[in-house]
Fold this sequence. Notes:
- By secondary structure, this protein is mostly beta strands.
- The chain is 0% helix and 58% strand.
- The model has no long low-confidence stretch (mean pLDDT 89).
Amino acid sequence: MGGDVLRWSDYRSMPWKNGGGVTREVASGVVRAPLGAVEPVDGFDWRVSIADVDAGGAFSSFPGIDRVITLIEGEGMVLTVDGVPEVVSPLSPFAFSGDAETDCRLEAGAVRDLNAMTRRGRASAQVRVVTVTSEAGVRCDEGEVLLIMAATEGITVGGPDGRETALGRLDCVRQEGPGVLALRGDGAVAEIRITAAS
């Protein structure tokens, strides 16, 4: 197996910044910065987490952070970002600024979402949901961190050594630097790519 397997049962739980709920951290990191660059005060340049949202309300403010949110359970929610309402549909990534005043309204009960957060000027994230119907190879390039999270059951991942690992729902594989992860099965995954700012 080429990447590190991260299991749902091992994710670290922590309270939201505003105290309104709980998030589970999947992975986080600091990018290599030029000599003399200021290190992040809260310990990360990028972070991927899963949050349970049981009720509507204000989102925590994260100045200097860009966010991509993807609904992975539930029927939908509306985020009002700086006064503009945006419908967030299941498995459709939505990017917005952590600086923005953001409020959430749930459409049909509690939801669970995947959050990719990056420090502006230090890192960026791209998130997409990929349907796996048989076999697909996903490449990670030099300088990238690639996380593949199983959005459904029925996904296995293999690395260059030929070994395969079954992923439970919301388990993840993390690959840093060059390599190819082979996905097999019938389901969907979230592909999260983190790159250092140029």
